[in-house]
Design brief:
The strands form nine sheets. The chain has a five-stranded mixed beta sheet with strand order 2-11-8-4-6, with no helix packed on it. The protein has a five-stranded antiparallel beta sheet with strand order 13-12-15-19-17, with no helix packed on it. Strand 9 and strand 10 form a beta hairpin. The protein folds into four domains: 96 residues, Sandwich (Immunoglobulin-like); 109 residues, Immunoglobulins (Immunoglobulin-like); 96 residues, Immunoglobulin-like (Sandwich), CATH 2.60.40; 172 residues, Galactose-binding domain-like (Jelly Rolls). It is mostly beta strands. The longest helix has 17 residues. 4% of the residues lie in helices and 46% in strands. The chain contains two helices and 39 strands. This is PKD domain-containing protein. It comes from Flammeovirga kamogawensis.
Length: 530
């Protein structure tokens, strides 16, 4: 009896559900536009003769038509320029910029990302077709007055008197992303230009100074990674540096591996060195002293550099180091005597510039005057103008041009297009040198050098501003028409983290507008005297 009841119950349930409408799956998925390109992550760039694959993986497509521009064909066909396939491989046979068009019909209103559109969608994909990378190089002698002389013959050996320069010019096809020069025996001996420098024209001309006797080659490579392409030019024994009848020039004094380095315009004779002809004076924090010279020698790596080592003395970045030379036996390898100089200042070359890796546009290449706004301190700090110009630059193509009225000044910050402060990152407990390159245009001849405060520029920072930060002073002795490095201050920061700039200029004790270019801000870690 019990078993009969179970069977009856099962039969009733089956009859009940068997009378209901059968379950149906939900409707089709929403239509969605999704198209991929094999070079989509690389701006759809391809070299002539190359191909790009396009794939339509959209949902809900009922029909599609690809339409190719003139100069492009479907791979494996002759002059076929349309297709209804979901994947096509397109070959581009002509240099230029071309549009690949896709017309799609969907079963329902389609989504493009999160936006719903109609059932008909037309899309254009722009393709840039490049030449193969090709290089051409030319060169001219640079005269001693800076003007250009005759062309070099790139198929022959060219004589050049030691201490003179050659200017190299390049042109290219195929939009290379990097240009690498190797100048055997030259200064610089290597230089690498990146995409930005190639685009803005910084790489168009390169001056190379030849200081050492010998015969030297030049190599240049242009390349790009996507689509890959490269071209190399090599000129063997292109330049023969010969003895000169011109005076030898001291071109720089700097620190090198703990030595004082005297950089001459050409190679010096090691046997002509007499340490007794050199003198060094040092000063720091109001104290001045004369260290003993331990040795003077030729740099084993660079025959035009004279190295001075000091007895029991370390060179610190906040030292003022002055070097003098009394005429003696020092001469070049082509027998030209070195001339005297007195109290020439050693300039420390900034180490790694942390601004280069930040959003801060330290070289004014990617900003406009609007990115360097007035900070509304009121008079007299509004008595200035600032423009970002391409008239002159320490590096790249642009610099800031500033003019400050007599007795007035400037206060400005650095912000992005949304008005947000552009910052740099530092570490607490470290010391940094902050500087900028300046080139005076006019206005220093009327400065009163004896005034309590002369025209100056200062780099303040926020948060935790040090209002006692150091400054760079302009005087009647500041060079005009020449780029000089302005050390603004040595600075430690209260905390690790991000800071932003407030740049202040002041033009007191001057009856003229002070006008100058400014370029290449630097913030670099330094070693200061304990």
């Amino acid at each position: 009896m019990k078993r009969f009841n179970h069977i009856l119950l099962f039969s009733l349930v089956a009859m009940l559900f068997g009378c209901q409408t059968e379950w149906e799956a939900p409707g089709a998925e929403p239509s969605h536009h999704v198209v991929y390109s094999s070079e989509g992550d690389f701006d759809n760039r391809v070299e002539i003769g190359g191909n790009i694959s396009f794939g339509d993986v959209s949902r809900g497509v009922t029909s599609r038509t690809w339409t190719l521009p003139e100069g492009a064909t479907i791979e494996g066909t002759e002059n076929v320029t349309t297709s209804d396939k979901d994947v096509i491989h397109v070959v581009f046979n002509t240099v230029g910029q071309y549009d690949v068009k896709l017309s799609q019909t969907f079963s329902t209103n389609a989504f493009v990302d999160s936006t719903q559109v109609g059932t008909q969608l037309d899309t254009t994909y722009t393709v840039t077709v490049l030449d193969p990378v090709q290089l051409a190089l030319s060169a001219k002698y640079v005269n001693t007055d800076g003007t250009l002389g005759a062309d070099l013959d790139l198929n022959a050996e060219n004589e050049l008197m030691a201490g003179n320069s050659v200017r190299f010019f390049y042109t290219s096809k195929g939009e290379p992303a990097q240009l690498t020069y190797t100048f055997e025996g030259g200064t610089p001996d290597e230089i690498v230009y990146d995409q930005t420098q190639i685009t803005d024209g910084s790489a168009d001309e390169t001056d190379v100074l030849y200081k050492r006797l010998g015969t030297y080659s030049v190599d240049v490579i242009a390349d790009r990674s996507r689509p890959y392409g490269a071209d190399t030019l090599s000129f063997t024994n292109l330049i023969k540096v010969i003895p000169s009848d011109q005076p030898v020039r001291l071109t720089d004094i700097y620190e090198k591996n703990g030595y004082i380095a005297l950089d001459y315009s050409r190679e010096m004779d090691p046997s002509s060195i007499n340490a007794a002809n050199f003198a060094v004076k040092m000063a720091n924090n109001g104290t001045e002293w004369t260290p003993e010279i331990a040795s003077v020698m030729i740099d084993p790596e660079e025959g035009n550099v004279v190295l001075i080592s000091l007895e029991n003395e370390t060179l610190y970045n906040d030292d003022y180091i002055y070097v003098s030379y009394t005429p003696g036996s020092l001469q070049t390898t082509d027998f030209v005597k070195a001339t005297a100089f007195i109290d020439n200042l050693l300039v420390f070359k900034p180490a790694t510039n942390l601004l280069v890796e930040s959003a801060f546009d330290n070289s004014f290449e990617t900003s406009t005057a609007a990115n360097w706004p007035y900070l509304w301190w009121g008079a007299p700090w509004d008595g200035y103008t600032l423009d970002v110009v391409d008239e002159d630059a320490k590096s790249g193509a642009k610099s800031a041009k500033i003019s400050m009225n007599p007795g007035e000044g400037a206060i400005l910050g650095h912000r992005d297009g949304n008005g947000e402060n552009l910052t740099f990152t530092v570490e607490a407990g470290k010391n940094y040198e902050i500087g900028v390159w300046v080139k005076v245009i006019s206005g220093t001849s009327t400065i009163d050098d004896a005034a309590g405060e002369v025209p100056n520029i200062i780099f303040f920072f926020e948060p935790g501003t040090d209002w006692g930060a150091g400054r760079f002073d302009f005087t009647t002795q500041t060079p005009v028409g020449e780029w000089v490095y302005a050390r603004l201050t040595f600075q430690s920061f209260p905390d690790s983290g991000d800071y932003y700039m407030m740049f202040r200029g002041n033009n007191p004790a001057n009856t003229s507008n002070l006008e100058f270019y400014m370029d290449d801000f630097t913030i670099s870690e330094v070693n200061l005297r304990p």
